[in-house]
Amino acid sequence: MAIFLKTNLIAGFTKWKKRKPLNEQGNFLTRLGEMLENGFSISEAIDFYSRLDGRSRLVTENIVAELHNGVPIHEILFREHFDQNACIQIFFADKHGYMSEALIGAGDYLRKKARDRKTVVKLLQYPLILIIILFFVMILLKNLLLPQFNNLYQSMGYNSSRNIHFLIDFLKNTPIYVLLFTLFLLVCLLISHLYFRKKSPIEKAEWLSRIPIFQFYYKLYISQFLAREWSFLLRSGFSINEVLRHMKNQSFRPLLRDTAETVMNRLQLGEPFSVILSDVRFIEKEFTMVVKHGEKNGRMDHELLYYSQFSFVRMEEKLQKIFRSLQPAIFIVIGLMIVAVYISILYPMFQMIDAV
């Protein structure tokens, strides 16, 4: 077990260390897409960018050399530890031909992802500092202040009420509760990791799509991604079977690969496409309805594109709403803890003063 954890930690740290910042990845892909729109080929754009910004850590001699040897751009970027979701968008673009749009879209996605991470860090930074300070205050309270107040109360013959006694005991043991809770979370994460290693990608996705609150984002993200990529592929003249075959042949997202294989097997048995999608638990029902409607009127590519744009805006609004409510919720918890500290110390003193 120890060897397993050590190996995974070393591998994860090495990968994290090699990974380029998301903002740099996003800017690189966006500029690449813009150069393609202006008539550059992929090879020319990469070569020009390396000359334009020779100090950039993203454009290496290895990338340029592999491009000249005919290695697909999505494979090169994956080896250079670019974001997997960006790589799979570029993989599909290699099939449907809308490479400039895909590169610009992937760049926008990565910059937005970097902004969201920065926003979460900003929101949590100050509250986390307060929580750490409060944690040490609780330790001082337990080891220094509360014992002295207890001696004072005993010398004056004061007996606190049951509620105050419970509150004081809770505050005294808060550091222990926090440590036990942290240990419990770590054990749960370890058990979950070991449990999910044995599950297939589809089983993992079905489990994640049942988690309250999180299921909304998970299902909407997958549906939005599929709608966007399918719309491009269908617009390029690919049939549903060809779209599924491309999904099956990619290696970036095992979930999409296994899902495509399952759907293709059921299509061969003669089941309607929309009916098969309705049985997939980790996509939105609206996505299935759009596909069903698009099958009838022959405009599935356009409708899927509109649905992906609508879903993206919907997901963005929901995330912003959570970001706005996250910090106040943490401050409320901190405020309640501070009030509890004051009550546990001052309330018995006021009661003693009233009794004199």
TrEMBL record:
It comes from the Bacteria. Its main location: membrane. It is a multi-pass membrane protein. InterPro entries: GspF/PilC (IPR003004), T2SS_GspF_dom (IPR018076), T2SS_GspF_sf (IPR042094), T4P_ComGB (IPR047692). The keyword Hydrolase does not apply. It is found in: Cell membrane. The chain crosses the membrane at residues 120-141, 176-196, 329-350. Keywords: Cell membrane, Membrane, Transmembrane, Transmembrane helix. The keyword 4Fe-4S does not apply. Residues 28-147, 227-348 form the Type II secretion system protein GspF domain. Belongs to the GSP F family. This is Competence type IV pilus assembly protein ComGB. It comes from Heyndrickxia acidicola. The gene is comGB.
